[in-house]
Task: inverse folding
């Protein structure tokens, strides 16, 4: 995203290691949030006036004065900036001895503020597994200006996902899916389920093999973000919708026609745990898919006042996580809508109406990054590797 602000002043090159002194002095707010605020402020103040250490101290004090959950961010010890752009940065580090990722995003690049004012972090939602989401508002600015996604513990796969890397296209045939892709997916889900079951009682129902999704689908976490729930699927406010009114403090009657609906992003999560991706959809899935489309669009219209003809409704393939889900966005919200990744729900329905085995038969072009396990596996078995 282009920004009129100056580049972020700390560790501006990906993979650049932070010194121990910088890590100790900066903390989370000094490294990430205060650095971003400093960059915004420097567009109107000289570098001599904008002192990052002062921002770090003020930011840390502000964090400590907020909720107990938010104050935990002050304990974050950064080790490496693994990806940085004008509007966001991804920092790897440790939180109380646990490997942790922080993804800090600035929502309004033009926002300027004195760095000494600090950022009051507040926990927006927390999945009870590895995902937590924080927001911060700069002084004298009404809207939320910064968000942080915290992943802790952060696996190698989650860290690698955030590193800049090359990608390549593959033609994933039905045979390659059955012989290579699906075994990898099942192995990963088996690991996820084993970790989850170790935390649950023997008689507890598994709502998803993925820990944080189990918490969402069971209703134990993020209940404030739920828009619809029935025996087929749950729809909630996706955390990528960073401008959404606070789900805890803003009455839902005020969500209808809210200016933030311009950035609408909702997620429908299927309750059937046997469906990791659209590859597993068959003709028998059509009633479920039609219900998701109709009920999901009706829910958005009733709550937000956005009509169906303004919505893009789609799957990702391959998805970020292997539990079937459907994205609902405004037609002009484009992240994740690359031609090789997004599959419109209406097209999926029509394909299955023509042939109930459509996704069991067809080849699908996919783009994978070189650190993905599937990239390596497909490269090893396809002649000539990636195309």
Result:
């Amino acid at each position: 995203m282009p920004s009129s602000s100056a580049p972020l002043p700390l560790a501006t090159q990906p993979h650049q290691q932070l010194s121990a002194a910088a890590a100790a002095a900066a903390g989370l707010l000094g490294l990430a949030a205060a650095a971003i605020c400093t960059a915004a402020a420097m567009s109107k103040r000289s570098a001599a006036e904008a002192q990052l250490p002062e921002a770090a101290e003020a930011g840390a004090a502000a964090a400590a004065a907020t909720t107990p959950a938010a104050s935990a961010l002050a304990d974050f010890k950064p080790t490496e900036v693994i990806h940085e752009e004008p509007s966001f940065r991804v920092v790897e580090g440790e939180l109380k001895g646990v490997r942790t990722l922080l993804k800090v995003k600035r929502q309004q690049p033009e926002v300027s503020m004195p760095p000494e004012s600090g950022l009051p972090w507040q926990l927006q939602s927390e999945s009870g597994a590895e995902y937590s989401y924080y927001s911060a508002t700069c002084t004298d600015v009404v809207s939320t200006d910064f968000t942080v996604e915290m992943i802790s513990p952060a696996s190698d796969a989650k860290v690698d996902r955030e590193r800049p890397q090359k990608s390549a296209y593959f033609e994933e045939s039905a045979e390659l899916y059955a012989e290579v892709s699906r075994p990898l997916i099942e192995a990963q889900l088996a690991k996820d389920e084993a970790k989850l079951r170790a935390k649950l009682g023997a008689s507890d129902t598994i709502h998803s093999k993925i820990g944080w999704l189990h918490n969402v689908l069971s209703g134990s976490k993020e209940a404030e973000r739920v828009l619809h729930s029935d025996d087929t699927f749950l729809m909630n406010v996706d955390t990528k919708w960073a401008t959404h009114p606070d789900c805890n403090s803003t009455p839902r009657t005020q969500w209808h026609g809210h200016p933030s609906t311009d950035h609408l992003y909702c997620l429908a999560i299927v309750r059937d745990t046997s469906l990791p991706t659209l590859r597993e959809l068959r003709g028998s899935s059509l009633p479920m898919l039609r219900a998701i489309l109709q009920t999901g669009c009706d829910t958005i219209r009733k709550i937000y006042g956005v009509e169906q003809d303004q919505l893009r409704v789609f799957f990702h393939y391959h998805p970020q996580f292997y539990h079937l889900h459907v994205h609902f966005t405004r037609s002009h919200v484009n992240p994740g809508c690359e031609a090789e990744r997004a599959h419109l729900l209406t097209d999926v329905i029509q394909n299955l109406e023509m042939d109930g085995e459509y996704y069991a038969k067809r080849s699908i072009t996919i783009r994978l990054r070189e650190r993905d396990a599937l990239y390596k596996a497909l490269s090893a078995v396809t002649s000539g590797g990636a195309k």
Observations:
- The first strand starts at residue 16 and ends at 17.
- The chain has two domains: 16-154, 167-381.
